[in-house]
Amino acid sequence: MNCEEATKLMDGYLDGELDPITSQTIEEHLRGCPACEQTHKANSALIRAMERATPYYKASAELRERIQISLREEIAEPPARKVVRDSQVLFRKRQPELRTILLGTPWNWLALAAAIIFAAIIGLNLVPRLQRPGADQFLATQLIASHVRSLMANHLTDVASSDQHTVKPWLDAKLDFAPAVVDISSEGFPLIGGRLDYLDNRPVVALIYQRRKHFINLFVWPAGADTSKTPKAISRQGYQLLHWVDSDFTYWAVSDVNEKDLQTFKQLFEEQLPHH
Amino acid sequence: MALLLREAHVSEPEDFESDPKIVKFVVVKKHEEDHAQPAELTSFEEVMLPHLDAAHNLARWLLRNEQDAQDVVQEAYLRAFKSFAGFHGSNGRAWLLTIVRNTSYTLLKKNRAVDLTTPFDEEIHATGYESVSPATILEHSEDAELLRKAMDELPAEFREILTLRHQEGLSYKEIADIAQIPPGTVMSRLARARAKLRECLAARIGKEK
């Protein structure tokens, strides 16, 4: 190896990015060539110095907060407004302070759940004079709140398994009723797991299924004698609710998948139920 | 709040329990159907927020302006979040830095065409400070302010590669991916960037003398 070749490969050698054989060849050259060895030493020292001394611009806490807020806005916003906003984002200045406070990080989702519950309470108190709200509306509110809560960090499942034969015994051991857990993963609704919840003044089972990137909470509890047999579909707050009843159980499916997918889910679920 | 209560089209509300038809509440404020899950946001933030400093540092060096850097990093995080579903790799930092880099160049091209289109002018910087010895450069090389000024004089592609190598310690392979150049080009570009940085340092030291 001559000096020209060694100089050409010097940076790769300094960065430890050359293959072992080439590295060795350079080392041999450096041992025999004081001029190259001196350049090598000087460059090496300079690079280390630059690595140490070049200012590193850390992100401010403010920027972190600003990003977290914008991500939450991204989730909350309908697409029509989003298009306009995206094209402007490079020129947008900081969020107003008040917004920062109101949309502070984890409170966003808590606030959504709280808002739903709050609305339900007001609804129960005020609306009867205008129209009968029905128990369903309050229940729907509870169901959505539970669904939203379940999607907050690490709260989706108590028993996480795609195997119905794991989920069902786990649930059966905790409850005085034994809902069916079916496997419809081959139809595009993999089972994620199960969870215990408390709704409508009773313990209930939540089975979690997935549809693409979305989760479906299927709440199940024993059907009472007074349970209405009427199936219902409710759309509220961007969530779809589907309710049906069979001979043993009351079902409420809650998700943000579209209504058609949820109907398909119901149909598949019922088809796979063991027959009595 | 009132929005939540404004169910419309409920026919005969008194009787809907026994209504054989499916009762449907039409809700005024409706989210789009396939908005991202909060769970997805949580995992996105877990994977990507730890690299916020790296993202900001790269953008700051590329744009040489704090406000632009912040805007670009915010925009890059939004873009990353939107395409997060397509991210299956293990190198979150390299993936994010690629987006930060591309977003930075978009803004550079828009606002500062000069920065990209003017090739580094060897003539202007042909120093005349050859008298400044390597030892003298080394003496000054831990002067952060001097380094910053010298770095800021370099073209964007040099600032980029020096940041990725000297500050993030990325491999040639990672740098090639982020800067979108052939892996074989990384070493030669890095060599030129370092040589140019030495020159700029020498020129500044020479002037101060």
Short description:
With 276 residues, chain A is of the alpha+beta class. Chain A is built from ten helices and seven strands.
Number of helices of chain A: 10
Residue-averaged pLDDT of chain A, rounded?
81
- Cα(first) to Cα(last) distance of chain A is 84 Å
Gyration radius from CA atoms of chain B, angstroms = 26 Å
Mean of residue pLDDT of chain B? 78
| β-strand number of chain A | 7
Strand percentage of chain B lies at under 5%
What's the count of strands of chain B? 0
* Order of the strands making up the biggest sheet of chain A: 1-2-3-4-7-6-5
- General shape of chain B: elongated
Task: Give the largest interface.
Answer: A-B, 79 and 82 residues
Distance between the termini of chain B: 70 Å
Uncertain segments of chain B are 1-36, 117-124
Element pattern of chain B in H and E: HHHHHHHHHHHH
Tally the helices of chain B: what do you get? 12
Instruction: Give the radius of gyration of chain A.
Output: 30 Å
Describe the structure in your own words.
The complex is a heterodimer of chains A (276) and B (209). Chain A has helices at 3-14, 20-32, 34-53, 61-76, 79-88, 97-102, 107-126, 134-151, 164-174, 259-272, and strands spanning 159-160, 191-199, 202-211, 214-222, 232-236, 239-245, 249-255. With 276 residues, chain A is α+β, with helices and mostly antiparallel strands. A seven-stranded antiparallel sheet of chain A has the order 1-2-3-4-7-6-5, sandwiched between helices. In chain A, a hairpin with a 2-residue loop joins strand 3 and strand 4 (214-222). The radius of gyration of chain A is 30 Å and the shape is elongated. The relative contact order of chain A is 0.07. Chain B contains twelve helices and no strands. The interface between A and B is large, with 79 and 82 residues.
